[in-house]
Amino acid sequence: MATTIATRPAISVSGLRKTFGDKVVLDGIDLMVSEGTVFSLLGPNGAGKTTVVRILSTLVPADGGSVRVAGHDLTGQPDAVRAAIGVTGQFSAVDNLLTGEENLKLMADLHHLGRTEGRRRVARLIEHFDLGEMARKTPAVYSGGMRRRLDLAMTLVGDPRLIFLDEPTTGLDPRSRHAMWQIIRGLVAEGVTVFLTTQYLDEADELADRIAVLDHGRIVVEGTPDELKRRIPGGHILLRFTDPTALHSAARTLAVAQRDDEALTLQIPSDGDVRSLREVLDRLDDAQVEVDRLSIHTPDLDDVFFAFTGTPASAAARDAIMEGHR
Description:
Largest sheet: 6 strands, mixed
Helix content: 25-40%
CATH class of the largest domain: Alpha Beta
Number of domains: 2
Order of helices and strands: EEEHEEHEHHHEHEHEEHEHEEHEHH
Radius of gyration: 25 Å
Structural class: alpha/beta
Number of helices: 12
Shape: elongated
Strand order of the largest sheet: 6-7-8-3-9-10
CATH architecture of the largest domain: 3-Layer(aba) Sandwich
CATH topology of the largest domain: Rossmann fold
Distance between the termini: 38 Å
Number of strands: 14
């Protein structure tokens, strides 16, 4: 018999506010992050993403609002919050004067692990993060990807169930980024909750169960990656033809299309589902019109990001999109 497991909130935030001087950085943020998921916070540079992480991880006090992290009240139980979380920033906290293994042992000591348990956990992390013989060398000779792996391994020494990753793959090459993605997926599969900020929209699309977009101190949109992409108009099927005759015949058959006589293309509005694609091809087949090439464009997180952030024009577009989904 199938059972449904209700997920509890790992983070719940209501009305979070923060100002620096006369600048309002966070203007009433509401968030809820379920246990065992990846929640990604996106936004332009300066939108306040790192400030959110610093507040939730007890590094900076909030000016208003209520926050619970890992079941603990942020204001009343900061020590309990710190004991339950791990934080990895975009800049490595690794000590270059110690070997990788010594860095991990130092973290074990800071977490007051016994000698036996500390060594066992360090050995397990060295193996899990594929540090191998490099663990006996100082991080000065590590690649960027290996430094990030060590940094994350140090965060995990305390066995946190909630991890804040603040732009963890900034500056990494594509291979190292994908390796880090695999590590993050593995952590979530083990029940760890990940709060991720990133400047890479494809990273959020690959990893996140839910995404919130922060702009000018407010959450402007939130949902699953697919939900957010479905809110954006502009999906289409692009048909390319080899000669004007085929283009003209297809244009007559498909009355609702944007036509480019020079490029010999037709652009048909579509959300990219199989049913609408099959319908277009069946109509062309019935009319005996041959298509040379076909491509499908569906809105991606780049489209979501630009529609909901940045400029007065994007604010107007955002309002129009939101109105269309009421």
